Amino acid sequence: MASKSTEPESPKKNEKFDKFYTEVKEIEKRDSVLTSKQQIDRLLRPGASYFNLNPYEVLQLEHDTPLDEARKKYKRLSILVHPDKNQDDLERANNAFETVNRAWRTIDNDESRKKCLEIIQEAKDMTEFMIAEKRKKLKKEGKDTSVEEDDPAIMKRSIYVQTCKLFADLERKRKDHEARELQERKRKREQEIEEEQKATMSKEWQKNFDVIQGK
C-alpha cells in the first residue's frame, strides 16, 4: 500500500489559501459593521426562510464560536434590528428581530445546539466523502485526482451548500410530522363529534320512544 505523501503543500496552494483567508476576514469585517437596514435586508433576503434555518448563519457565527462570544454577537445584532430602532420599517424589523431571537434560543439551548452542530458536522462528513469518491473515480480512470474542492473557497462553499440542504431536509421532515399529527388530531376530533352525535340521537330516540310508550 502506498504511503501517504508527506510533502509540504506547494507555495502556490498556500498562496491561494492565504488569499482566500484574507478575503473571508474582509467579508467578516464588512458584515460586522452592517447598518440596521442592511442587516434587516440580509435576514429577509430572497430565500431567507431557507438560509435562516441555520442559526449560526443568522447570527453570522462560526459553529465553534464560544457561547459567551455568540451571546455578545446576538445582543449586538438584536439591537441593530430591534423594532424600536427601526420605526420607519417596523414590520420588517419585527420579522428580523424574531428571526434573530429564534436563532439565539436555538443556540442557547444545549439540546437544540447539539442537534445543529451534528447537522453541520454531518454536512462536512458528507462533503468529504463525496470528494473521496470523486478522487477514487478519477484514480480508477487513470486521471489526475485533483478536484475543484482542493480550492479552500470552493470547499467552504460545498460544505455550506450541503449544510443548507440538511437543515432544509430536517425542516421538511418537521413540517411533515406536524401535518400528520394535525391530520390525526382532526380525525380523532371528527370521530369524537360523530360519537357525540350518535349518543345524542340515541338519547332523543329513547326519549321519544318512552313518550310514545306512555312512560
Automatic annotation (TrEMBL):
Start and end residues of each J domain: 54-128
Q: Among the entry's GO cellular component annotations, what is one?
A: nucleus
Basic and acidic residues compositional bias, start-end? 175-184
Q: Which CDD domains match?
A: DnaJ
Q: What domain of life does the native source organism fall in?
A: Eukaryota
Q: Which residues cross the membrane?
A: none
* Chain segments carrying region Disordered: 175-215
One Pfam family linked to the record: DnaJ
Q: Per its UniProt record, what PANTHER family does this chain match?
A: DNAJ HOMOLOG SUBFAMILY C MEMBER 8 (PTHR15606:SF4), DNAJ HOMOLOG SUBFAMILY C MEMBER 8/LIPOPOLYSACCHARIDE SPECIFIC RESPONSE-7-RELATED (PTHR15606)
What protein does this entry describe? Answer: J domain-containing protein
